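Hi Y.,

Following your request, here is the sequence exactly as I used it, all 458 residues.
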Amino acid sequence: MTGTGKKVLAVVVAAAAVAAGIFGYRALKGGEGSADNAVYVQMVRNVNMANNGYSNRYSGIVETQQTEKITFDTSRKLDELLVAEGQSVKSGDIIFKYSTEDVDLQIQQAELEVEQMNTNISDSNAQIEELQKAMNRASASDIPAYSAQIKDLQAQVAQTEYNVKTKQAEIEKLKSSKENAGVACTLDGTVKSIADLEALINGTLTEPDGSMSTTYVTIVAEGDYRVKGTVTEQTIGEIYIGAPVILRSRIDTSVTWSGTITDIDTDPSSSQSSMDYGYSGESASQYAFYADLDTTEGLMLGQHLTIEMDYGQSASKTGIWLNSGFVVNEGGSDYVWAAKESGAKLEKRSVTLGEYDEELDEVEIASGLDETEYIAWPDESCKAGAPTTSEMILPDEGEYYEEGGEYYEEGDELLEGESGFFEEDNADLEEDGGPVEEVPESNGHGSGWDPAAEGAFL
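Below is the corresponding structure, written out as tokens. Let me know if you'd prefer a different format.
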């Protein structure tokens, strides 16, 4: 086809190796032997895993290991606040005191009530004694009436005695609150915040979850920090308790700390619009997780970081390290599909292998390949002498491509059994069994790759 309306995307691949998969690209135009049907190649430097590492990164913030929220009893009045925001405190320090004026009045009132109830009990007992004497002298026909009066008074006495015990317990509680008018903190730390007391008493303060707040003073503990991270429902399956993580400064990504995930919240903390591929515009729940640090040197409370799983990408490597899928073993010899430069003919290049990183599925190229040369992902399109390109050519709007390079215009009937993809305006590319060419299950290093299964663009 002509170049009119052609969409050409110059691709510089950052060589993101994830588990045993790697993203690859291949040109999809024209017929066999044409420049448009060239095999897609990438500069070795760009796929050299000694230079590049990949892992999902999550947002994080440095916080203290422990926070104490001191509540305020809204039925009482404040006498004195003894701290200010930012002030350092020790465990046992008095943070604020309640007023005891009302407590004194309440104690006096309760004691008067107890005294009155005891008087009523004495009077009732005296009446019961007189009624019992009268009943002993009464005729048989009058005894039931006396007995009923006695039982009624006895019930009143029992109820009043119970009320006395209840009121005495209330008095003891009031006396205790008077003696403990000062409210102390239970940890060493810093006063992080002091709530507006009037708003707290009026019930207009809320917690992050929307519930009414009774927290007056918040204390954050001194000592080691931890990092609180946020992960979405699409990626929460990638983290687990006990997993090693790397934490990076947002200002200088070369500055890192190491740590371990210690806790993962199972209840979502919020929702946000996800822009991940395949989820654009959808709402994704967010979950909090926490990581303890091996060292907190250089960190500040409230500092923002990124968190990534530690797959060994922080380990220093030199030379050329490729995902093992690039290397083909045939008859005991190892080779890659390489080109001296983009546009040069593809060649089967023998290479000498060095060490193998089993965890990351990466192999060292000891000799036979230079960083300035180009390399192709091995598949059936790779043949000696094939043209190469470092440009990824996407189809025009409304074009459909079969394996072999033919295409249909939008609206043409797609015959049963034909394979390829059709692109509508502003739509994602969809695969229908092709034009992905079948890749051998193994290339000799146990890392066979199915591009369609990995969701790669071809």
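Helices lie at 44-47, 101-137, 143-179, 197-202, 451-454.

Thanks again,
Q.
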